[in-house]
Amino acid sequence: MYITLDGVSRQYGSVWAIDRVTMGIARNEFVSLLGPSGSGKTTLLRIIAGLERPSQGRVLIDGVDVTELPPHKRGVAMVFQEFLLFPHRTVWENLAFPLRMLKLPAAEIEERVRWVVGILSLGGLEKRYPNQLSGGQQQRVALGRGLVGRPKALLLDEPLANLDRELRQEMEVEIRRHQTALGIPFIYVTHNQEEALSMSDRIAVVRRGRIEDFAARTEIYDRPKTAFIAQFVGRSNRFEGTADAGGNRLATRCGARLALPAPGLTPGSPALAFIKNEKLRLDAAGTGAASGPNRIACTVKDVILRGAYADYILAFGERELNASRPRSERSFLAGEPVLASFAPGDIDVFDEKGEQAA
Amino acid sequence: MTRRNFASRAAGPLLLGVPTLFLLALFVVPLASMVVLSFWRTENYHIVQDWNVGNYVTLATGGAYVTFLIRSLVMATVVSVVSVAVAWPVSYAIILYGGRYRLLFTLAFAVPFLTGEVLRVIALQGLLGPLGLINGVLMALGAAPLRFIMYTNVASAIGLVYLYLPIVVTVIYLSLLNFDARLIDAAKIFGASPLRAFFEVTWPLNLFGTLIGFALCFIPCLSATLAPRFLGGPNGTLYGMAMAQQFGESGTWALGAAMGVVLFLTSILAVLAIGMRVNLRRTGFTGFGRG
Amino acid sequence: MRGRLAKATTRYALLATLALSYLFLYLPILHIGLAAFSKNANFPYPPRWTLDTFGRLFGNSLYQGAFLNSLVLGIGAGALSTLLAAAATLGLMRHAGRRTGLFLTLFVAPLFVAEVLVGIASLIFNGLFLELQGNLVSAILANAVHCFSYALLIMATQLYRYDWRLDDAAMVFGASPLRTFFEVTLPLIWPGLLGAFIVTFIMAFNNLEISFYLLGATPTLPSVAWGALRYGVKPELYALATAVNLVVVLGLGIMFVLMLTGKAAFGHRPERERAV
């Protein structure tokens, strides 16, 4: 692996912010560290950058142990959430900074800055100061400063968090394109699952200083390994219940009955189940059996139009369920009774410890 | 016009106007009257309203006054440079290691500043004087007293550093406090060693604050009257002291006023000379607005 | 590792400078403090304790009168400069618009003019052009000029983060500007006012360079001390300086408590914990 974390831990006082993390990242891979705030993902990134020292473990970049190396000798670059452009330097000087530190000849600095100005369409802004730029422009300069030195890896710490939604989606595409073109690993820290899902090859879900799972993005989304991932990635309906005598059915607290694809639960033990909103099928009430396993009769409470699809808020007794359906399907109106159903294979079941059960 | 409308319209001119009038009446006009007086002359303790530049001629040719001014300039420069050189590591240490006690550390520097010049000079005599602590200890140990700290220019300089170090520390500390230290992280990530990062980022971005601190030390030092009088020796007469004498023993107010004008202009020129060399943009200055 | 050694060296060098600076600043203060409380005032090691010096100081009617005058001077100049600075700060932040730079330059200009020049210029203006004798009032006014700039800086750092939309919100809900000031603005800025007053009070109380030229025949503590100093340092002066030091420490202690409890900032920003 190109970048390797080997049993890395970081202790603050008596708290383990990072707890025995081991992972490997390939040379041209886009990896996201996804987790809620305070999960330790930024600390992990700062350890790779050399801004923090691990209390235990080793960091290797390109086969070299860099654990003891200060940040300026690691040859990585970083894009910060607050951009952190040098306010006393122009755009051009900000972009030239990493090259000056590499002591490159002036002609090459000129050439490379011009290259990065070109690929990030920063032409015309070279003489401006950072505070004369819009948020999106500052973001581009920060990205350019990260790319210009051809680093061994680019570390991105929530770089899009301060941009508005539209700009963010534009930048997602652009960041991914530069990563593919340059063929260096990007390690992208975010708490936003959409960003992680849209760009990454693999996603590491971080929780309480540990890697909950590190797998391909489709794997993380479609087959969550833990209850935490099921809850955190995608939008789901959550059910709490008790396994029946056979271990392959779940009687939920709210009164629904779920038939699981395979027995795996200890009979009589509590369990958690998640069904993604888009896996909930909706039919008009009265088509087929009204009740039974994996079928829930409910009423449409509200409809939220999202353009290509619609979010339905459904009332089922005391609780609410959420369904997300394409607009190409039959639509329902608020107040209409509907039948929500789902396939056994679409249920993600976990035992009481949150481990995968079926 | 409703009452409320009137009140909010009057607020701006009132809030800004009253302090402006106050400063005009008690600061600008007195300074202007000093300029006027400097072109009159004093005869036997009486002011004669007779326009002339005789006072300035005396200052330029009187010999001693030029010496005093040069001595004062050297003294103020040395003291300010020393104060800045000490204040930087001090404020940096407070920011780095002060933790939750930062505040206490900085306020502790304000005590000597606020206690005022006379009482500070008394305390310094307790330290440096012939019967003071340092020489007391030396004599108790059987050593000879240090002559160079008794009534010399060195003693004056130590006294002035003592008086104005606190304000320099406070200004540089505030500058560092408002400096986004994560920019240092950014510089390091992009290949700057800690020393390089300091000169590429920390120093230029705190240069403005440092220069303010320098000026707030330089200006009062240039016109110091008390410290040189009580700590400096026979060769320690500084410009400010000589100026004060014109209003006391000698009673030559007009000459004193001319000295005041020269002192004022020298301070302004010094501040401008420093200010002109600084490109505000290059210090990360983004205007007076609320960031 | 070379890097870590350099880091440790830097750390100890910084801390040593800090420690030496405190030693430099406080050694004289502690020395004269000891001297004030001992019979062997010149070299009080070890001190032979006595309170006689303070007894003589407090019993001296010259010092008593001077103390009262200094108190009036401090309160007058402190209150005047704090009020004016509060108005100026509010005006600068809300109403100055494009002319902020201009007003700010005028308001901080006294910082860049030596105190002695303010004193001399005021003396000339009062004595020559207004033909007024020096007294406490003229001293208060001249001191207020210099204190004004300091008060402005303290208030400005305090109000810099004040959210003016609160004012607008109050007015939207029907509060008059005056009522808004007393119910919303004042409770939020009073720590700044108090801090500015404490500092300017202490400055004016201890000032000599300005007051000296404007007091006329009125004695204040610094001027009496200055007079006495010309005839050499006496133990009473040590006692006086020590007493004032204690008062200053007390004033700053109040400010410290205010800032610690988060009621005031004075330029301090506790939320930026990771600075440097």
Please give the share of residues in helix of chain B: over 70%
Number of strands of chain A: 20
- Tell me the CATH topology of the largest domain in chain B: MetI-like fold
Shape, per Cα inertia axes of chain A: globular
- Write the CATH homologous superfamily of the largest domain in chain B: MetI-like
Order of helices and strands of chain A: EEEHEEEHHHEHEHEEHHEEEEEEEEEE
Q: Give the class of chain B from helix and strand content and strand pairing.
A: mainly alpha
- Annotated CATH homologous superfamily of the largest domain in chain A: P-loop containing nucleotide triphosphate hydrolases
Average pLDDT rating of chain B: 85
Strand order in the sheet with the most strands of chain A = 6-7-8-3-9-10
Bin the strand percentage of chain B: under 5%
N-to-C span of chain B: 35 Å
Q: Would you report the number of β strands of chain B?
A: 2
Assembly state: heterotrimer
Overall tally of domains of chain B: 2
Q: Name the chain pair whose interface involves the most residues.
A: B-C, 102 and 102 residues
**Largest beta sheet: strand ordering of chain B:** 1-2
CATH topology of the largest domain in chain A: Rossmann fold
Brief digest:
The complex is a heterotrimer of chains A (358), B (291) and C (276). Helix content of chain A is 24%, strand content 34%.
